[in-house]
């Protein structure tokens, strides 16, 4: 079993829909990151969380440390949100990555 | 992400050659991390460096791979005698402090032919 599990693996949505991507982890962590990787491969760091909730524009990330679970929400999704979203957990010097969720938003 | 500069963006090497991948962190960042993304696989940690020091290289293959982050100049990931299995995207990230968020570079895509 991977230390970081994401669901779903693939997600197709219509423009405007509310999106939720989930991440569960099985190890003790110091922080959790949500990353976005576009076709063409560049990686953008969206959030770093160690507790609670963060919001940036249409993106919201939450984390529940006790349940070892985080969610990334996208409100009013848009085709330009289409990307792979990756959950990563920080353990000391190391970072462990989920396999990613491939999101496609159709117009 | 123009702030963490990786070059080259694409690198083609023949089997047995050496590959040198460069990463210039964001200005003021002294923590550098290297990750590898094999085709159809997730990102994997390779090495964590601070200026002139390797802090953690637990994710780096024991042979042929080395990394440095000299006092002056970019961090270098060096792969000697490349093999086809080294073909991957190599990403670098930097942070100001260990507990800060990371900024990623655009990656170097290495193809071994």
Helix and strand topology:
The complex is a heterodimer of chains A (107) and B (113).
Chain A: E1 4-7, E2 10-14, E3 19-25, E4 31-37, E5 43-49, E6 52-56, E7 59-64, E8 69-74, E9 83-91, E10 94-97, E11 101-106
Parallel strand pairs in A: 2-11
Antiparallel strand pairs in A: 1-3, 3-8, 4-5, 4-9, 6-7, 7-8, 9-10, 9-11
Chain B: E1 5-7, E2 10-13, E3 19-24, E4 31-37, E5 43-50, E6 53-56, E7 65-68, E8 75-79, E9 88-95, E10 103-104, E11 108-112
Parallel strand pairs in B: 2-11
Antiparallel strand pairs in B: 1-3, 3-8, 4-5, 4-9, 5-6, 7-8, 9-10, 9-11
Unreliable stretches of chain A, pLDDT < 50, 5 or more residues? none
Main beta sheet of chain B, described? 7 strands, mixed
How confident is the prediction overall: mean pLDDT of chain A?
A: 93
The value of Rg of chain A in angstroms is: 13 Å
Give a verbal description of the structure:
Chain A is globular. In chain A, 0% of the residues lie in helices and 62% in strands. The mean pLDDT of chain A is 93. Chain A contains no helices and 11 strands. With 107 residues, chain A is mostly beta strands. Chain A has strands at residues 4-7, 10-14, 19-25, 31-37, 43-49, 52-56, 59-64, 69-74, 83-91, 94-97, 101-106. In chain A, strands 2, 4, 5, 9, 10 and 11 form a 6-stranded mixed β-sheet that branches. In chain A, β7 and β8 (69-74) form a beta hairpin. Chain B is mostly beta strands. Helix content of chain B is 0%, strand content 50%. Chain B has no helices and 11 strands. Chain B has strands at residues 5-7, 10-13, 19-24, 31-37, 43-50, 53-56, 65-68, 75-79, 88-95, 103-104, 108-112. In chain B, strands 2, 4, 5, 6, 9, 10 and 11 form a 7-stranded mixed β-sheet that branches. A 4-stranded antiparallel β-sheet of chain B has the order 1-3-8-7, with no helix packed on it. In chain B, β9 and β10 form a beta hairpin. The radius of gyration of chain B is 13 Å and the shape is globular. At the A-B interface, β4, β5 and β10 of A face β4, β5, β9 and β10 of B.
